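Q: Is it fine to ask for two folds in a single conversation?
A: Yes, each is treated on its own. Send the first.
Q: Here.
A: Result:
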Amino acid sequence: MLQKLAVVVLVVASFACVLSCGKTGNHFLYATIPATNQIAVFREDPYSGVLTQLSESPYNVGSGPQSAALHPSGKYLYVSNAGQGENDISLFDINSDGTITEVTPRTATGTLPFLLAMDPGGAFLYCANVLSNSLSVFSISSSGSLTPLGNSPFTINLSPKNMQISPSGKFLFISAPSQVTGLVATFSLTAGVPAFVSLTSTADNDPSGLAVSPNGSYLYTANSTANSVSIYSIGSSGALTPVTGSPLSANFQHPVAVTVDPKGAYLYVADQGTSQGTTGGSSNIASFSISSSTGFPAAVTDSPFASESESSFVVLDPTGPYLFVGNQASNAGVQAFGVSAGSLNTIASYSVGNTPSSIVILQ
């Protein structure tokens, strides 16, 4: 069950890394740890990718923190708490040294708020509620406080697995499992309000990770059961169309997360290397160069790259050449890689004691 929870929130890795204002020198990495109801905070050296845990870390948060989102101003951190009887969002003020202070009271959501996403302008926060099949939407004040929009939470008739907002802020994509075929739902966003656009069947009944290219032209889906990655072009209405050659099969074994680098040149896939619920496989991160004209990925020469056991999500530092992987099983923690032209070199692994469910990077 813990593995499934970590996979659910992998989405966080792509949509929550944002550029902040007023921060210089070090970057900061925040990891949610559901088992201990905590947030681990690390200082990231922007010149080496090395992490150092802050002396004040870890911080207590609500029960079962699953997903984190950063405000573009760099002032606020939001965490969804999906523990039994919790079902709310914590707001933290971020201090100049990366430390955080919770602002209470917490904001109520629907049942099991596993996923958070924020529009690029920082005006609205979206929370996908897995058990209530709903989407809570909040406006964000200048102080970071949340106010639910009228009619929120919105019923979406899906049990969300992952969630991504397009770089333009016009579209919201949600992946969801199905007994017959997996689905990706597209919603248009107007003044924060979601409106259903289309429902696209995927190559898998259990689509996991989602990633949108920086130019907003392509959507990538990790198909964890079908062992493939689907590639869709995004139309002007937000509707999805498979590109020629999709889905991509590259000897995947349970791919669960995808992310695209800030320039849209490379795609990274967390491949657990095992069938879900089994152990003993070899996890890795597969790396692909992306065609600028078609959006289709081609494997980097020395890909894949070995990772710690049961990698569950991947996050790129938006301005630094570093990639961070959340791992479960016996080596639960965060693994850091240096990135060069799509190739990865291991920097170090950092234990957080229990399985991390999401990480976000502030710079």
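Q: Second one now.
A: Result:
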Amino acid sequence: MTTLEVIKAPGVAMVLAIYGGVMLTALANTAVSPVFMFTSVLRGGYGFSPLYISIFIALAGFSQSFWTLAVFPPLHKRIGTRGILRVTSAVLPVLFLVNPINNQLLKHNQITAFWIIAPIMMLLGGFYSQAFTSVQLAVNDITPTPAALGTLNGVALTLVAGIRAIAPALFASLFAFGARTQILGGYLIWLIMIAMSIAVGILVLYLPEKAYGIVKKTNEEDNEED
């Protein structure tokens, strides 16, 4: 099959759209988070020092490893690729919303509340990392033929490469613009990212059945569990 034939195969375009959406939101958050944490509280950030930024990024890395290695395998076995993508896409807007809420806590001198919520949310935020593995499994499952797997993965990686070339500079600039102009109190970027995550969640509703990632049990397996 040619590359165009693979892309036109049933369900492939939708899975690629979801793949791109998941990666776009993730890369946008990766680009914005350090800048947001460094930005002063007055302009809508946390006003962290480089040391605290490093600690929070380390927490995020630990969290992603934990959710992917410890939680993803049993959770995927239970609810499949579609289930994980639907849950993660529902959780992500809430995670983005917490950032301006935390900034408001700092602005109103609620320091104790901030230091309770912020680290916990950083650890919980790694939950979304399960979406990365899920969309890769969806790409593998939607492949029209085994011989086309390499071609489709190449298309997916090319798509992500394009996103990586644009997203960091774009979203960091959007955050800087919102913080400088104080549009929506400096929270413009979070409105954009929440809207993006909701759009990805809508796309997930149209995930092709072939990519659900749910293993159908045989009658013998059901009887063994009973």
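Q: Anything structural to flag on that second result?
A: Two points. Residues 217-222 have pLDDT under 50 and may be disordered. The helical segments are 3-8, 12-38, 50-107, 111-125, 130-142, 149-181, 188-204, 219-225.
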